[in-house]
Fold this protein.
Amino acid sequence: MKKRLFLGWFLLMGLLVSARGAESTVRALSLQDCIQAALEHNLDLRIERYNPQLSLFDLNAVYAGYDPQFSIEGQHDYSKAGRSIFQGGLEAPGSETDTDSFRSSLGGLLPFGTRYTLQGSASDQYGQSFFLDTNLVVQPRSFENSRASASINLTQPLLKDFWIDATRLNIRLGKSRLEQSEHGLRSQIMSVINEVEQAYYDLIYARESVKVQEKALELATRLLQENKRRVEVGAMAPLDEKQAEAQAASSRADLLQAPNALSLAENALKRLMSDDFATMTRMVLIPSGTLDASRQLFNLHDSWGKGLTQRPDYLQAKLTVEQYGIRLKYDHNQLFPQLEVFGGYGLGGTGNEFSDAFGEVRNRTQPFHYYGGRLVIPLANTGARNRYKSTKAQQEQTVLQLKKLEQEIMIQIDNAIKVAQSNFERVEATRAARQFAEAALDAEQKKLESGKSTSFFVLQLQRDLTSASSEEIRALTVYKKSLAQLAFLEGSTLERNAVSVAAR
């Protein structure tokens, strides 16, 4: 009665699983399909893709140091003087003056450190004053005069800020950081692809494990049925039937656990492929790939060459060393005195009205120019000297860190090659073990049929075959994953999967 109840419960669970599968969408996917989906929808990648854009915006913002600045200004001034006392005690009201002035300029910085300014100005002063005429009578007098000028002024540093200044420093650092962010995106893409490969092979392993457990249950059930017939005809002791029942029950329990591992493996792959997990909950992923193992020829020195030319983290570290070299060049330049030459040329004009002043500027009747030099020597220069020493020490530190990373990459690749070689040998060994287990079980079943063996030995060999089959597919999975990991450590993941990256 208990056996029938258990069998009924098992059939009910199977029907429920089948009904749930009917509601789901089954989708067969190759590894390339999964990688393509991850490249389009993976959230980590979508987040990382903003970094090169942000670095490019930052770089473009630094070029603002060369943006010219234009200014225009207008101003009105009014002043009134106190009363005037002339000869004989005569008093006159104070004079009044109004001034309208306008100024404009266009200035900026050129890539060689040259600072330039184009200036223009105009002013018109008018008002009323008082004077004492020949008849000793206070008389009013109106006045007006205008001025205008246009000039260009240049200043060129010759030592400090000559071959590199703050703007050129930030531009070069910005370009380097942009390249670093592109390598960062490439690294994230490689990481995601590697995770997809690992998850894809884990999913194949989980599905193959279900098949192994199904096969184990099939063998146990078949033996149980055969033992029942033998017990009924008196050719076998009831104890052998009980042993077969126990094995069948154990196989059922193992088979019930297998779908849970399969579901977890599916979710791991779905997480990498989608940015909306809810839409994939009812999707059943069927990998179209297989767990095959072909011997790979490894060349340690070629792999080292790839790792030290293609690994994004190594290329980023090299750029960090270059950045400190750029900073060191700037800090060294700041140790020099400030030596500048400067000069300017302009045209001026005066007259009673604006038109008169502008006319003289146009006719170049009042030219002017100037030139000269300026030398500023910091007597202690403590800040610049210590900044230079600090940057030099940091550069030496990053060189050592790069050397350390280079050594770690070589060790990682060496270890990964040895692991892959060992895993392939394990595949060969587990395949042979599974074949021997199949042959041993077949021979023992024949002996059981002829009455020369017992159910106990057959059950033991069934368990051995299940274990050997599981070990074989595990070894195949581990080998495939180790090849993917080796490509990741070499920096050849994109090449291995024929993926091209355009960061900008």
Remarks:
- Residues 1-22 have pLDDT under 50 and may be disordered.
- The longest strand covers residues 138-157.
